[in-house]
Amino acid sequence: MTRRALLHTAARPRVALAVVALTLTACAPSGGVPVSPAPTSSRAERDDVSTGLQAVEERYDVTVGVSLLNTGTGETISYRGAERFGFASTVKVFLAAEFLRRTPEDARDDLVRWTAADIERAGYSPVTTARLDTGLTAAELAEAAVRESDNTATNLVFDQIGGPAELDAALSRLGDDVTDIVDVEPGLNTVGPDSTGNTTTADAFTTSLAALRGAGSSTDADAPTLAEWMSGNATGDALVRAGAPSGWTVADKSGGAGAVRNDIAVVTPPGRPPLVLTVLTRKNDASAPYEDAAVSESAAVVLNTVR
Length: 307
What we know:
It is a single chain. The protein is an alpha+beta fold. It has one domain: Beta-lactamase (3-Layer(aba) Sandwich), CATH 3.40.710. The chain is built from eleven helices and twelve strands. It has helices at residues 43-60, 92-102, 116-122, 126-130, 138-147, 151-161, 164-173, 202-211, 223-231, 240-243, 292-303; strands spanning 16-19, 23-24, 33-34, 62-70, 75-79, 84-86, 111-112, 136-137, 199-201, 249-257, 260-268, 275-283. It has a six-stranded antiparallel beta sheet, sandwiched between helices. Strands 2-3 form a two-stranded antiparallel sheet. A two-stranded antiparallel sheet has the order 6-9. Strand 2 (23-24) and strand 3 (33-34) form a beta hairpin. The chain is globular, with a radius of gyration of 18 Å.
């Protein structure tokens, strides 16, 4: 799919399962996890996932896009994986990764200041509102963007890397020519008619998150920092984390605005390589508020297939 492809809704999609032949280093110990051939999934398993996700769509009157990559076997699961959705705040994990990639250690401690007007323009800004009088370091702003989804912090980190076009270019270097980043907060939550701006696909986000370390988007030294920020995501408890089997760890970045609710995550079963999972949802009634349960239940359908 190219950037010219528009938002659309496919009728009764089927789940696609495949085995990819590549070597992943993303979300894995330094040096990577070699991907080995996976067993072929049965038609019954595909039908179970498809039926389960269609039931979620009907139950919550939503459209769901899901993409999962098993980094241990290379198997993928995709449901509406090539369909465009607004990404909302999930994109902040890639923003933070690009900040870490290009910012030297000493520059991360530089103090950054902002104004009340910056906060008013950005909207939701719990951390930067509390620290208006004192400022934060550049690294603390990146952490606030991921952990608390602070909008003013997000915009200041965009300033640090050179704006949305630079993040868009960073994703292109990862091989993602689908995600289309055009705005900062709060505009990045808006998808215009007949526009690909501020949209992605579940397949694109899963592939990009898996590729982060392998394509040099962040160094091995920085990977634990990004993972820790995602593990502390204050807004994700009701999403993929709620749908994961007991004992599985989830590091994620949520996003939500209006009818859109999303989560992008690295899910690690005990004693097994990580799974990279993207769940994107939008209410079919654009005026209706999003529902967390549509994300958590979609995650449960897919994760229970690979448990």
